[in-house]
Amino acid sequence: MPRRWLVVGVGAIAVVGIGVTVWVLFVSPQNLTICPSGCAFAQIQKAIDAARSGSTLHIRSGTYRENILIAKPIQIVGSEGARLEGQINIAKTENVSITSLAVHGAVGIALSRRVTLKANTISGSADVGVAVISSQEISVVGNTITGNAGDGVFIEASQVQISQNTIGGNKGYGIRADSTSQLSGEGNRSGSRVPDDFPTIQAAIDAWQASMGLNGLGDVNEHVPAGLLVGEGAIFVAPGVYKEFLTIRDKNIRIRGASRDEVILDGTGLGDVDGITVRGQSTVFLENLTVRNFRDDGIDAEGKIELTLRNVLLEGNGSNGAEIAHSDITVWLTRVEIRNNRNYGLWAFSAENIRECRETAVSQNGTDFGALHEASVAEIAHKCH
Prior knowledge:
This protein is mostly beta strands. It has 3 helices and 40 strands.
């Protein structure tokens, strides 16, 4: 009876029989690392070209300025701080995934199958953020897609599952699809919710991209299922007392509470801090909330800032209700009450800071208006009433 056995070596298998030896080459996937210096690869495309099918590419922190083409089954995993300045094109392939990468440019998927985009930030494209053309079994999950010059996601003749993404601040639609595409998914928003998406308001602010907000043409076009993308292009805060102080720096952001009486930012026991600190170059819209009992200011703004307060109460703070401490700040006030603050109700650099003031009361503070001469005080009071 003939004997057969396997001889296993490195990289190959020899099958030995009677008078015949057949060598079968075995090629295993690789783990490749890309970093700006000190790694085998400093460019992502060179690592892709060298990778075997099924390999995983780990991209370390750094900025990579290149356009990349993926035409083989690979997985790309980014580290914190890994940023691609360029486009990604995935074409005529399958079993590709890209995870945890910041992409400043477009991602295109064409004539491909089983492609996953997960937990990436895709922004700053001169056209659409993500384009899917003639492709099947595509998953777009948990990404932030924002600030693109066209649609956030454009889909043509494809089958795509879209879930748990934040898609906002794009100049086109959030999601646009043609009539031949098949879309499914849930949990996509053009903003975020506290505490559903983030446990605190500050956590939502930290995750907010500078270019987020409403999509220019609306959330979806007519071929996208109703409810696939919802939201208000804002951080929506559910009723509750939030024991935290907030810092907003260099962001365009809208924070909308459920109602002024139900959403309360309370500084009791938090120490010598402001309720809301706004710095840098920011456009901030605060609506339907109360800021109370902070040992310092309710709101402290300094920098090149556009600040809108609508239906906001600033009450019982240990210094000023609102301190507007820079000539480059422009403020719009509508249905605002500033009362019972220890020092000043509204401390402004000049009357020019207050661009508009409607249905607003500044009263019962230590001094209602600070750092202003009488004519400026009268001018602001006239605007407010």
